[in-house]
């Protein structure tokens, strides 16, 4: 089977336009008839949904903090098999990492041996763009910055000034995207909205693709890609939650890592999907139920009225199924959610937990998780936490003991009641 070449799209800082440029590249290359496999560095759930839609092929996460190097290489190899190009969108700036200094996009590029295209926001830049780019290109010998795409260029004159300065760096200028209001993505309290919630996503994608086709030298960009490592070994996977796992899937429960689900399938588990927003219950054949994260607080009234969903979860609990919720899924397992407007919505009531988002406080960071629960996973896990809501549990043992990336102990996470359990942690893998 043919194995792709690969490139990483990164930037000096967040907000430079990596996501728009990546979407445009995926869609523009797809228009040319190429098969492009998308991936995202880090724990982000939302960018991969955009890139997957643009590529017409599911995106994966490659997390250089949470995942061992052999898993990163194996997942990249698996994702790139049969494709013409693996295109990895970076997170934050190229060398931005977690609090312990590990897990940057640069770390991922070096682990995979892939070259980096640097997206530079040209707004308020002139000739000083050259030392900026040169500094990133020479900062770490193992990270190969091989080309530059300028974003938000103000005018033809501005582009000439920038291009002239960049010639001193010796790096090719692959393109210069003009400043356009049509190339601004909508945002929400936890980042971008989901593609299905974005009016005119197809128009936005097509505009980005056309901007790339008009202003980026795609032939030169493709020529800079390097082959992926051909690894026959399958990626390391967490054991499945059960033999038949019913998984909630809709816009309220959209945050399930593809590598987890693929790993469960590869180990012989049957996966079925149901929509709580459509008032569907988990399969009666399921011996495990997984409620992923998402935005349940935006659908409180619908979820509160979903009686078939509620009774289906109670029935699953009563027959001894393992029921596991992450972040939004954990919130829904509780007694209620107080939304941003202060309105309370009754949830499934399987855990004596109340969550509220009307007093927002951001909690963000990687977590090392320890547990002694019925989860069929190793006692040590790597995960990520990102939420603005808070949960109050009454008298239950926590699901996880937690450390942050620096090894600093965090408050215990989640709750366990029999075989029903959940927490705010999104589990990524075993270390």
Short précis:
This protein folds into two domains: 223 residues, Rossmann fold (3-Layer(aba) Sandwich); 186 residues, Rossmann fold (3-Layer(aba) Sandwich). 27% of the residues lie in helices and 27% in strands.
Would you write up a description of this structure?
The chain has 431 residues and is of the alpha/beta class. It contains twelve helices and 25 strands. It has helices at 18-31, 46-55, 69-80, 105-112, 129-138, 156-166, 201-215, 218-223, 258-266, 300-304, 307-318, 328-333, and strands spanning 5-10, 36-41, 60-62, 85-89, 116-121, 145-153, 173-178, 187-188, 191-192, 226-227, 244-248, 270-274, 288-291, 322-326, 336-338, 344-346, 353-356, 363-370, 380-387, 390-393, 400-404, 409-413, 415-417, 420-423, 426-429. The strands form five sheets. Strands 1, 2, 3, 4, 5, 6, 7 and 10 form an eight-stranded mixed beta sheet that branches. A six-stranded mixed beta sheet has the order 12-11-13-14-24-23, with helices on both faces. A five-stranded antiparallel beta sheet has the order 22-21-18-19-25, with no helix packed on it. It is elongated, with a radius of gyration of 22 Å. The two termini are 29 Å apart.
Q: What sort of overall outline do the alpha carbons produce when their principal axes are compared?
A: elongated
Q: Return the CATH class of the largest domain.
A: Alpha Beta
- Give the name of the CATH superfamily of the largest domain: P-loop containing nucleotide triphosphate hydrolases
Residue runs with pLDDT of under 50 for 5 or more positions: 188-192
CATH architecture of the largest domain: 3-Layer(aba) Sandwich
Count of beta strands: 25
CATH topology of the largest domain: Rossmann fold
Mean model confidence by pLDDT: 93
Percentage of residues in DSSP E strands: 25-35%
Helix content: 25-40%
Rg, Å, rounded: 22 Å
Compute the separation of the termini in Å: 29 Å
């Amino acid at each position: 089977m043919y194995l792709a070449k690969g490139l990483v799209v990164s930037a000096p800082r967040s907000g430079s336009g990596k996501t728009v440029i990546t979407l445009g590249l995926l869609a523009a290359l797809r228009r040319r008839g190429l098969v492009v496999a998308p991936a995202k560095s880090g724990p982000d759930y939302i960018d991969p949904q955009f890139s997957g839609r643009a590529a017409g092929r599911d995106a994966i996460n490659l997390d250089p903090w949470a995942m061992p190097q052999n898993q990163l290489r194996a997942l990249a190899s698996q994702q790139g098999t049969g494709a013409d190009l693996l295109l990895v969108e970076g997170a934050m700036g190229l060398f931005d990492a977690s609090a312990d200094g590990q897990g940057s996009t640069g770390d991922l590029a070096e682990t995979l041996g892939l070259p980096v295209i640097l997206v530079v926001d040209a707004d308020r830049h002139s000739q000083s763009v050259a030392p900026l780019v040169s500094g990133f290109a020479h900062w770490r010998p193992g990270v190969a910055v091989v080309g530059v795409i300028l974003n938000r260029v103000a005018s033809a004159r501005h582009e000439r000034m920038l291009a002239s300065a960049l010639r001193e760096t010796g790096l090719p200028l692959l393109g210069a995207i003009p400043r356009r209001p049509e190339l601004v993505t909508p945002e929400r309290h936890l980042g971008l909205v989901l593609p299905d919630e974005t009016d005119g996503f197809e128009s936005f994608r097509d505009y980005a693709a056309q901007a790339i086709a008009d202003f980026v030298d795609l032939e030169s960009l493709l020529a800079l890609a390097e082959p992926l490592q051909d690894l026959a070994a399958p990626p390391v996977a967490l054991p499945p939650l059960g033999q038949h796992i019913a998984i909630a899937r809709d816009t309220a429960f959209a945050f399930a890592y593809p590598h987890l689900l693929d790993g469960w399938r590869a180990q012989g588990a049957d996966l079925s999907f149901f929509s709580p927003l459509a008032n569907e219950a988990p399969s009666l054949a399921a011996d495990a139920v997984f409620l992923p994260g998402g935005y349940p607080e935006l659908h409180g009234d619908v979820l509160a009225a979903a009686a078939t969903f509620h009774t289906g979860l109670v029935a699953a609990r009563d027959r001894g199924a393992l029921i596991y919720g992450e972040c939004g899924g954990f919130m829904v397992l509780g007694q209620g959610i107080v939304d941003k407007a202060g309105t309370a919505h009754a949830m499934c009531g399987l855990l004596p937990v109340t969550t509220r988002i009307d007093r927002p406080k951001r909690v963000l960071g990687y977590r090392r998780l320890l547990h002694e629960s019925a989860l069929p996973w190793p006692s040590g896990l790597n995960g990520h936490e990102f939420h603005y809501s808070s949960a109050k549990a009454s008298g239950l043992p926590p699901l996880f003991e937690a450390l942050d990336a620096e090894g600093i102990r965090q408050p215990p996470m989640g709750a366990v009641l029999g075989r029903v359990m959940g927490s705010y942690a999104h589990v990524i893998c075993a270390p």
